[in-house]
Specification:
The protein is an alpha/beta fold. It contains 17 helices and 15 strands. The protein has helices at residues 12-22, 30-46, 48-59, 73-79, 82-103, 140-153, 167-176, 186-195, 212-221, 246-257, 272-287, 292-302, 311-321, 333-339, 354-359, 395-411, 415-425, and strands at 5-8, 67-68, 109-113, 116-124, 127-131, 157-161, 180-182, 205-207, 226-227, 235-240, 264-269, 304-307, 325-329, 345-348, 385-393. Strand 8, helix 9 (212-221) and strand 9 form a beta-alpha-beta unit. Helix 2 (30-46) runs antiparallel to helix 3, helix 5 runs parallel beside helix 6 (140-153) and helix 5 (82-103) runs parallel beside helix 7. The longest helix is centred in the first third of the chain and has 22 residues, at 82-103. It is globular.
């Protein structure tokens, strides 16, 4: 029977395992780096012919055309089932609504102080590439969670890269304002977005999660283009006290375990009896899961439970692990959430499934993984804008600041800096 490995507070292994899991973001990108470098160089040099060749080699298909402006999104929206169509529209509405509120906090500002005009100007990026995986499953939700945010930010050119895009993906692209579809995935798609080809426009930034090859490619093209971050396997930490329902806890753990064999289903619990019940419910739920093999492999490889004695320890473990999805299934969840400073998204209370955040809650589900929530943030409108500082001196203001500018320039041995001030004063 596949179960979570249990570590109890007070045992030496507890802190060792906690420390090891805090370092889980270390991905073995070196194992694929040589292959990815060759792909990037080839697509950069040859363009479409290399891109098509790699699609054939890695995706076992012909992609014609490679890039489309008219990708049939409106027709696809009518083709999908009524249930899916309404769900896509609801998700679009809520994602857009949340990020419109976020955009209100990003405004430009200006002021004049002692004769110096200062301003910060915020502009949308000229173009972005959004990546939606298409390997083990199809993810129209990932299209919405990236492209809608870019659209709200005002980005005029939004290119979606997706291998074998389904009708649902094309429909989501249409709703999200996608202006072009790249029918390719993997490192070859990242290369096309980063460097451009005969038909694929070059973009300023690439966002969205992908497999190890996509992640490695994003890291290697960073600097030529911007990226949102390096996504690792999906992960959830359920924080449970005696008020939690073991069936619900098991269900939420498996909601992430079914993504990928490398996913992390994690639990921190303050009740030993509840932990036993969760283990039993997990085994029962696995038996009935269509993606059982994937979820079972995830639980066997990365499923860990920490048993602690009090609420303070629940928060400490959650904060230290800095997990992508944190589900607080405990009493007064909002109060506990205040103590968990580092998390991609926090789902508070027994009635809040992580799956709601994946689809219709509103905030983008593109979140920092592998402990990157210590310094990262969910994908947001702020990821799709650039900022420019504006500075204008009056002659009197420059005269007032000249001694300080000259003194600092002299201290740094940069004489021309000081002269650039003095020549204006003459």
């Amino acid at each position: 029977m596949t179960q979570l490995r249990v570590f109890r507070a007070g045992q030496p292994e507890f802190e060792i395992q906690l420390r090891d899991l805090a370092l889980r973001g270390e991905q073995d990108l070196g194992a694929v780096e040589g292959t990815v470098r060759a792909i990037l160089a080839s697509v950069r040099r040859e363009g479409d012919p290399a891109l098509a060749s790699y699609v054939k080699q890695f995706e076992q298909r012909d992609a014609h055309p490679l890039f489309e402006r008219d990708y049939g999104g409106k027709a696809a929206l009518e083709q999908v089932s009524p249930e899916v169509r309404e769900a896509l529209k609801l998700a679009h509405q809520r994602i857009r609504g949340y990020h419109l509120r976020q955009a209100e906090k990003l405004g430009s500002f200006e002021y004049t102080e002692d004769g110096v005009f200062l301003a910060s100007r915020v502009n949308p990026l000229a173009s972005v590439g959004v990546y939606a995986p298409g390997g083990k499953a199809t993810y129209p939700s990932s299209v919405l969670m990236t492209a809608v945010v870019a659209q709200v930010a005002g980005v005029p050119e939004i290119i979606l890269a997706c291998p074998s895009p389904s009708a649902e993906v094309r429909a989501a692209a249409y709703l999200s304002g996608v202006t072009g579809l790249l029918n390719a995935g993997g490192a070859q798609a990242v290369a096309a977005l980063a460097y451009g080809t005969q038909t694929v426009p070059r973009v300023a930034k690439i966002v969205g999660p992908g497999n190890l090859y996509v992640t490695c490619a994003k890291r290697l093209v960073f600097g030529d283009v911007a990226i949102d971050g390096l996504a690792g396997p999906s992960e959830i930490l359920v924080v449970a006290d005696e008020t939690a329902d073991p069936k619900v806890v098991a269900a939420d753990l498996l909601s992430q375990a079914e993504h990928d064999e490398a996913a992390y289903p994690l639990l921190v619990c303050s009740d030993a009896g509840l932990l036993e019940q969760i283990q039993s419910e997990l085994a029962l739920a696995l038996e009935a899961l269509p993606r059982r093999d994937i979820a079972q492999a995830s639980v066997a490889a990365h499923g860990v439970a920490f048993l602690v004695s009090n609420r303070t320890e629940l928060a400490r473990v959650a904060d230290l692990l800095a997990v992508e999805h944190v589900s607080l299934q405990c009493a007064d969840a909002r109060a506990l959430a205040v103590q968990v400073r580092h998390a991609g998204a926090i789902f508070m209370g027994h009635a809040t499934p992580e799956a709601a955040g994946d689809y219709v809650a509103g905030p983008s589900h593109v979140l920092p993984t592998g402990g990157a929530a210590r310094f990262g943030a969910p994908l947001g409108v702020y990821d799709f804008v650039s900022r420019t500082s504006l500075i204008e001196y009056s002659p009197a203001a420059l005269a007032a600041h000249a001694p300080a500018i000259t003194a600092l320039a002299t201290a740094e041995g940069l004489e021309a800096h000081g002269r650039a001030v003095q020549v204006r004063l003459r």
